[in-house]
């Protein structure tokens, strides 16, 4: 959906620019000089803004590669996130020492899932429905793929491949956390809530979003999304604060719910 949205926006901008140029040429003779100058400047600014955005995206890629790419420390930091977000949610449903058991066993099951998918013929004890749901979450990009690219708005195929390589540690950490969250939510859904089918899958998806957060366009501040040609550089600045803001919101919701 994110790629479809990007394509639709790009097509809409191109169509709008062409129609604006056509309307300007057809009406230029009847325009007062002030309106003519304003219209020409508006169209030129729109076109130049597109070029400026490309420059800003290139700068964003450079900063991303310098700050986050192939950064082991960032990977280690990412892998500690479930302690702060997933564990408290587990404690809402399990009591005593049960949360620790669920938390640790979910890592074991997540590792077995990865092994089962990578090693041909690997034997697994995992519930077939759990495997099916995780596969489905994977196909819907709910397990960490393209997160950083979505945040920065980098979607060209060559850029995409480079971003995937530079962000391998970042993406791996996100994938581990989200797969772990998918296993945890499956346990909660089946053992504590009695969920099945589509309701179980929806609960898993919402649980992942709640504990690992959303990083696409849908979770960007409107001030950034509506910033026009400044959107790309503002996204670059915000990427280093996105987790902090999400976690502050998570804590606020926990406080309001009495947890």
Overview in brief:
This protein is an all-alpha fold and 259 residues long.
Protein architecture, described:
By secondary structure, the protein is an all-alpha fold. Mean pLDDT is 77; it is low at 147-158. The longest helix is centred in the N-terminal third of the chain and has 35 residues, at 33-67. It is elongated, with a radius of gyration of 23 Å. Helix 6 (128-139) packs across helix 9 and helix 9 (168-191) packs across helix 10. The chain contains 13 helices and no strands.
Structural classification: mainly alpha
Helix count from the secondary structure assignment = 13
- What is the terminal separation in angstroms? 34 Å
Roughly what is the average pLDDT, rounded to an integer?
Answer: 77
Query: How many β-strand stretches?
Result: 0
User: What is the beta-strand fraction?
Assistant: under 5%
Uncertain runs: 147-158
State the shape: elongated
Can you summarize the main beta sheet? Answer: none
Secondary-structure element pattern, one letter each:
HHHHHHHHHHHHH
Helical fraction: over 70%
Over the alpha carbons, how many angstroms does the gyration radius reach?
23 Å
């Amino acid at each position: 959906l994110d790629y479809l949205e990007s394509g639709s926006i790009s097509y809409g901008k191109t169509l709008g620019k062409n129609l604006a140029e056509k309307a300007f040429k057809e009406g230029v003779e009847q325009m007062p000089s002030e309106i003519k100058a304003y219209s020409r400047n508006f169209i030129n600014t729109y076109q130049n803004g597109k070029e400026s955005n490309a420059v800003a995206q290139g700068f964003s890629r450079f900063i991303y590669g310098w700050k986050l790419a192939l950064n082991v420390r960032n990977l280690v930091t990412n892998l500690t996130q479930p302690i702060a977000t997933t564990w408290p949610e587990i404690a809402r449903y399990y009591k005593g020492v049960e949360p620790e058991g669920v938390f640790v066993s979910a890592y074991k099951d997540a590792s077995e899932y990865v092994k089962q998918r990578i090693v041909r013929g690997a034997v697994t004890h995992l519930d077939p429905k759990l495997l099916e749901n995780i596969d489905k979450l994977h196909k819907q990009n709910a397990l960490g793929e393209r997160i950083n690219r979505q945040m920065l708005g980098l979607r060209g195929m060559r850029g995409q491949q480079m971003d995937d390589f530079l962000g391998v540690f970042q993406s791996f950490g996100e994938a581990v956390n989200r797969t772990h969250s998918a296993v945890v939510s499956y346990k909660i859904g089946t053992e504590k809530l009695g969920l099945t089918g589509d309701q179980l899958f929806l609960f898993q998806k919402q649980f992942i979003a709640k504990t690992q957060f959303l990083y696409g366009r849908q979770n960007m501040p409107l001030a950034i999304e509506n910033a026009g040609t400044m959107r790309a550089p503002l996204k670059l600045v915000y990427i280093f604060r996105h987790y902090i803001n999400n976690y502050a919101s998570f804590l606020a919701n926990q406080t309001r719910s009495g947890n």
